[in-house]
Amino acid sequence: MTVKYFFAALGVGLILTSCGTQESEYDRYYEQGYRDSVATARANAPEPAPGTKTPTAPKAAAEQPKQHPGAMLIAGSDCTACHNNQQKLVGPAYVDVAGKYEANDKNREYLIGKIKEGGAGVWGQVPMPPHPNLSNDDAGKMVDYILSLKK
Ligand code: HEC
């Protein structure tokens, strides 16, 4: 082997080793500095113009705004057959009930009793049927919701 070949072989070897230590695209992508610069660019990205609709994934049930527990109890009971939030049906609209009664302990007690025992004569002669199986707690939540509808 001549000296010439020796250096040629050494040269090839050096090229191969230097290639081996060079970072791949993949390594650079995950380099901390690169990630930081992406994070900064994202943080400094301009806000979309008002009115721009960004498609959003449908929210998971848990993320959706919580409904008032009283509203859910009313929706699950027979109340909806005779009452509506805004309009008089068989019974008065809940906004009208809310308008008639100030939200205080006395009125709360009275309305809980009325929902549980039923009765007539306040809004007309049609009676409100009793709900004896309703707990005070649940009736109270319904009353809280109804009185929260005050305009
Ligand atoms: C069959 C029809 C009917 C159903 C079912 C019904 N209501 Fe009534 N509700 C009435 C009527 C009629 C009145 C008016 C009673 C009166 O004039 O005293 C009334 C009155 C009320 C009032 C006002 C009470 C007052 O003295 O001012 C509230 C509050 C009320 N209902 C809540 C409920 C809730 C909550 C439910 C479900 C758990 C319910 N109602 C189910 C017919 C109904």
From TrEMBL:
Region (Disordered): 41-68
Residue spans of biased composition, Low complexity class: 50-64
Binding, heme c: C79, H83, M128
Post-translational modification: Binds 1 heme c group covalently per subunit.
Tree of life domain: Bacteria
GO molecular function: electron transfer activity; heme binding; iron ion binding
InterPro entries with a match to the protein in the record: Cyt_c-like_dom, Cyt_c-like_dom_sf, Cyt_c_ID
Residue ranges annotated for the Cytochrome c domain, each copy included: 65-150
Matches recorded under SUPFAM superfamilies: Cytochrome c
Keyword tags: Electron transport, Heme, Iron, Metal-binding, Transport
PROSITE patterns reported for this sequence: CYTC (PS51007), PROKAR_LIPOPROTEIN (PS51257)
UniProt name for this protein: Cytochrome c domain-containing protein
Gene source species: Pontibacter flavimaris
Top-level taxonomy: Bacteria, Pseudomonadati, Bacteroidota, Cytophagia, Cytophagales
